[in-house]
Amino acid sequence: MSRIVIVSNRTPGKGPAAGGLAVALRKVLSEREGFWFGWSGKLTDQPAPEARFEDIDGLTVAQIDLTRDDHHAYYAGFSNSILWPSFHLRLDLATIESHWYEGYRRVNQQFARALLALLKPDDIVWVHDYHLIPLASELRNLGARNRIGFYLHIPFPTPDALYAIPHHEELMRDLSRYDLVGMQAKRDVSAFTEFAEHQASSTFGGHRAKTVDFSRTEVDAFPIGSDPEAFARLAVSPAATKMIHRMRRAMGSQRLILGVDRLDYSKGLPQRVEAYEKLLTNNARLRRSVHLLQVAPPSRDSIKEYQETSDALDAICGRVMGKFAEPDWQPLTYVKRAYGQPSLAGLYRLARVALVTPLRDGMNLVAHEFIGAQDPADPGVLVLSRFAGAAEIFPEALLVNPFDTDETAEALRIALDMPQDERQQRWQALMAAARKHNVDDWALGFLARLAPGMQDKSTTRDILYLASVA
After folding, report:
1. Is the dihedral of CA 418, 424, 430, 434 positive or negative?
2. Deepest in the core among 38, 215, 368, 453, taking most CB within 10 A?
């Protein structure tokens, strides 16, 4: 049986997996021979030519170290200061330094050399996310003929935004070297297809580059999910119940509006708090009866744009507090740290409204987790950005334009006033979609398309069925 090799920027750490994706991929490897390959998290003076194997909680992991300069250019530089903002259509936040691409390419070459030494001819390689777009090209250039798949966890940019990315033609040619490219949403596949069908090659330097041939690459949407049944169980666990009791003691009869996000400019957090401010301004009757809790642990806080987002959020939260707070009532709580999944499940279950309003997102698993954690008899309401990939599979949510804070404020009012029977009907449809698009079936469906002949007959039959109904 062929081995599965999962490749990502970072390898899993010790202890419980932090999210549904890590849990699903661990499960993939636990049921098949294979290993996980990626950066160890360690920085060295010299690049490591070979990977080292380690057993991490029963998972076989192969890791390499990176130099500090290479990691900065590859990760903080090209990946997160150019690709991340551009793919999220924030070209105004992209910072372009030419040497970053050299480091990005160099790290992908280092990954390829170290990985090739570990591969067998029939291994199936599954590469994850924007850090490693060139990896298939680098492996092919070294002679690898394996089936290689790629999954993009963030949105794919529109053609105009793509053209603004340095070396975008090379990156698209890199994607053409994969056998299967998976995206989160149909809108991402459409953007990819638009580029592929209407390529405008650069004539810079007096010569026209050849168009990219995607005829040997399959591109499709594989919307990722969570494990809704697991969150349903977590939501009634002792840790979740403890969190619910704590919140009820603090809030009394107030209804909770909940946001859970990394502190990232793509999440639309200042706009979200501004919408809440307009809700309280326009609906005086709701003051004292609602409370916004925004959980936003810092991420990439060494990057200037993230610090600016943090400062903006601090300022608007302070403004709302100063405008509406009373000696015996606070309109909001802003928490800059992460909580474990059981505690989050308790918050999800208690919340009357989940405010999931990114300016642009690949999928957004918070929406999935909130749905899974609800009490079927008294569920909360999902207010969801139409620019999240989740909007394609959750049309029964209240879909909003997060840039229009008046619209979001009105959606909040509708959610808070929504009668129980409508909340139940909407949640039942949302839960059915969350079950259909669960993370286990996502992994199996992708692998069934990448290498349908690799499983034994019974497993293959099950996987192909799951892929057909996804």
Report:
1. positive
2. 368
- The CATH number of whichever domain residue 61 belongs to comes to 3.40.50.2000
pTM for this model (two decimals)? 0.91
CA dist., res. 247 & res. 461, Å (int):
47
The per-residue pLDDT for 128 is 97
**Cβ atoms 112, 135 nearer than 8 A:** yes
Domain containing 76: what range? 4-225+439-469
Q: From CA 450, how far away is CA 182, in angstroms rounded? A: 10
**Looking at the 3D structure of the chain, how many domains does it have?**
2
Name the catalytic one among 174, 179, 227, 361: 361
Closest by Cα among 335, 336, 317, 315 to 325: 317
**Both 216 and 312 in a single domain?**
no
406 part of the active site: no
- pLDDT-based confidence at 19, cuts 50/70/90? low
| Of the candidates 49, 75, 55, the residue with the CA atom closest to the CA atom of residue 14 | 55
pLDDT of res. 458: 35
Residue 291: active-site member: no
Choosing from 153, 167, 220, 440, the catalytic residue is 153
- pLDDT of 422 reads 98
- Residue where the block lists tokens 């890590």: 22
d(C-alpha 153, C-alpha 133), whole Å: 12
CA distance 208 to 154: 30
Do 221 and 186 form a contact (C-beta atoms < 8 A)?
A: yes
